[in-house]
Design a protein that fits this description.
The structure holds 2 protein chains of 2 kinds.
Chain A lengths: L1 H44 L19 E6 L6 H14 L15 E4 H4 L16 E4 L8 H5 L5 E3 L5 E3 L9 H5 L6 E2 L23 E2 L5 H5 L5 H5 L4 E5 L6 H8 L2 E2 L11 E4 L1
Parallel strand pairs in A: 1-10
Antiparallel strand pairs in A: 1-8, 2-3, 4-5, 6-7, 9-10
Chain B lengths: L9 H27 L14 H14 L2 H9 L9 H22 L8 H4 L6 H28 L8 H24 L12 H25 L8 H32 L2 H11 L9 H18 L2 H4 L2 H27 L15 H33 L1
The chains are: A alpha+beta, B mainly alpha.
Chain lengths: 272, 385
């Protein structure tokens, strides 16, 4: 009886070990697969044709995408509204009236956007001046560092992207983001979208989302929607190219970034 | 051995049935959350973690605290803990299981939880937290059942358990350290970004865990003949007193750094908790209760006369558990998000369904604890007879 039991236990022990071991190997092999997949899409991004992945000849490419927001050119309420609405409409951003809202591009007063720049004697009107905010597309993104599944990742051109199908909704990235740029779908967003735009996927409940520099528009050779709607108040371009419009603008104007002391190297520059 | 859980008194079965009914009620609320999403909770874009993650954090400490028995018993051969040891290890098993469940109920897409193993990200602290928690569960199951089985057969435990026990000491420290690293490495959350976070977590764990263990032992001794022994209770109470002192000391270090430096980002979460900030005072009552209860518990725990009085000790332990729970099981998470990156304050209070779901996870923990303790105590009573 006792030796039967021992044999049974040994069998159970070995089979549990096998299950755990194969699970671990499975994880490893999928990690390797992921590696090859990433390598493949990087090839496609460089213009090489690999299988069915063909990059459009008109796609915009860069070493590192960045944006300069010229605050001097934002004067009326409409200047802000146009940019925000352009983003909201094409990305199917739901209009949720509670604290569980979704925001990709929005405005905050200067004193909230740059809380470390507190100054009682600020230039008249600056304290309350609305500032457009969005994901900073950091060079060293804390959100990517903490994500346990790789659902948020940084592309070679600097864009920090979301895989809505892999995100488990743990919201660690929201705790890690020092800029409050991420939103979580606490509920199904679809009932809160006024007009569903068929060109961009709606999201499901339980995943995190944020601005992705209109990666889908760049692929078609178009500038980000907010930049297009800004009438020149926002400049978008390649930081690695010394002759790009954004580099020219930054070299001749004083610019600031949000929380530079954290070392995340944001890609959004504000020109005062 | 597990068959011991199937033979019990009427009271035992009534308790089990009660727990199952409670669990069913709570599960109903989880089903609502499962279909509607986390919108049924009090969490928001600004306070994106709440009661669930706070319970997870608190219970990792309870799980790790078994090491306060393991070190004296196995490393210093302090035999007085022999009748308490298995209860501590089995409590750790219940606590780790609850930790995992609290992470699970917090997920927006629970069906995708396996993505953490399918796409392991070695740079994510959460991946490591899952790894160490899983390992700790396996270690405690192995050690607990093997030593109990050996005791049942009146034989010494097999030799391979010893190295596992030594490993479990390091492992217990690691689970709470890694859990502290979840928070302590985040830029832009000044309340969490503190090098002393892991040490504070461990000190808090080493007082609250044994305190809960003692309270549960007192409760269990009302229903069974089994006694853990006066000496072990006194020794564990002494450990609780030292650990609580360290816990309070570490917290005061944080307060000093924040308020002597006068850096607003460092001071604001404390101000918010203890005085309210810009008229936002939702957590103030709780936070003020916390030092009061903490000091009261220390006042009883430090003098040996009051500590060795079982009634006073019980009061002190309850005060300590409530105080540390308010600290780590609630305000630590909420205050970490206050003020938000825009200097704004969003208040957070859990909703009724959220509380019920948390209660459900605690019920699962109680069920596991009841069954495991029933087995352990039955075996112990039989071998003693």
């Amino acid at each position: 009886m006792d030796s039967d039991k021992r044999r049974f236990l040994r069998f159970m022990g070995i089979s549990t070990g096998l299950v755990i071991g194969s699970g671990f190997l499975g994880g490893l092999s999928s990690a390797l697969r992921l590696g090859t997949k990433l390598g493949g899409s990087a090839l496609a991004a460089q213009g090489a044709v690999s299988g069915s992945l063909i990059s459009s000849p008109s796609a915009l490419k860069a070493g590192r995408w960045a944006m300069a927001i010229d605050l001097r050119k934002f004067k009326t309420n409409d200047d802000y509204r146009r940019c925000i609405d352009a983003c909201d409409e094409i990305h199917n951003i739901p209009d949720i009236p509670t604290g569980q809202e979704i925001k990709w591009v929005w405005e905050e007063p200067y004193e909230n956007a740059f809380p470390e720049q507190q100054n009682h004697y600020l230039e008249k009107g600056l304290k309350d001046k609305p500032i457009l905010l969005m994901c900073n597309q950091c060079e060293y993104p804390p959100c990517v560092r903490v994500c346990p599944t790789g659902a948020t990742f940084k592309r070679r051109d600097g864009i920090v992207m979301m895989d809505y199908h892999r995100c488990i909704g743990c919201r660690y990235c929201m705790a890690a983001c020092p800029y409050g740029s991420r939103s979580f779908n606490f509920q199904d967003p679809r009932p809160f979208i006024k007009h569903i735009c068929p060109d961009y996927p709606t999201r499901t409940k339980g995943v995190v989302e944020k601005c992705d520099f209109c990666a889908e528009r760049l692929d078609k050779g178009l500038l980000p929607a907010c930049v297009e709607a800004s009438n020149g108040a926002m400049v978008f371009g390649d930081l690695d190219d010394p002759n790009s419009d954004i580099r020219k603008l930054l070299s001749k104007s004083f610019s600031i970034r949000r929380k530079p002391e954290l070392g995340t190297q944001p890609s959004i520059f504000y020109i005062l | 051995m597990i068959e011991k859980a199937f033979y019990g008194s009427k009271k035992y079965w009534a308790w089990i049935v009660f727990l199952f009914i409670l669990l069913g009620t709570c599960f109903h609320f989880y089903l609502i959350q499962f279909s509607e999403g986390l919108t049924i909770t009090g969490m928001s874009r600004n306070v994106s973690w709440g009661l669930y993650i706070a319970q997870f954090t608190y219970l990792v400490g309870v799980a790790a605290s078994a090491v306060m028995l393991v070190i004296p018993y196995y490393l210093h051969h302090y035999k007085a803990f022999s009748r308490m040891m298995i209860l501590g290890e089995f409590m750790a098993i219940a606590a780790v299981t609850m930790c995992m469940l609290f992470i699970f109920v917090d997920l927006g897409q629970p069906m995708r939880v396996m993505n953490v193993l399918l796409y392991p990200q070695l740079h994510s602290v959460m991946f490591w937290d899952m790894t160490v928690l899983g390992g700790y569960l396996v270690l405690n199951l192995l050690i607990g059942f093997t030593t109990l089985e050996a005791e049942r057969k009146a034989a010494p435990p097999p030799g391979w358990v010893k190295p596992l026990i030594y490993l479990s000491v390091l492992w217990a420290i690691s689970i709470h350290t890694v859990t502290a690293f979840l928070y302590a490495g985040l830029p832009g959350r000044p309340y969490w970004m503190s090098a002393i976070m892991a040490a504070r977590f461990l000190a808090g764990a080493f007082c609250s865990g044994p305190a809960i263990l003692l309270l549960l032992v007192f409760l269990a001794q009302r229903f069974v003949k089994y006694r853990v022994g006066e000496e072990s209770i006194k020794a564990l109470a002494k450990i609780v007193a030292y650990a609580m002192s360290a816990n309070v000391f570490f917290l005061l270090l944080e307060v000093f750094t924040a308020f002597y430096s006068r850096i607003p980002d460092e001071m604001n979460p404390f101000k918010y908790l203890f005085a309210g900030l810009d008229g936002h005072t939702a957590l103030r009552v709780r936070a003020v209760l916390r030092p009061g209860l903490g000091i009261a518990s220390l006042a009883i725990l430090i003098p040996p006369q009051s500590r060795n009085n079982t009634k006073l000790l019980t009061v002190a332990l309850i005060a300590l558990v409530v105080s540390t729970w308010i600290d780590k099981g609630f305000s630590l998470i909420a205050a970490g998000f206050v003020p938000n990156p825009f200097g704004r304050i969003t208040e957070y209070l859990p909703t009724f369904p959220e509380i019920m779901i948390a209660l459900g996870v605690y019920t699962v923990g109680l069920l596991i604890l009841t069954v495991l303790w029933k087995v352990a105590i039955s075996v112990k009573e039989k071998t003693a007879a």
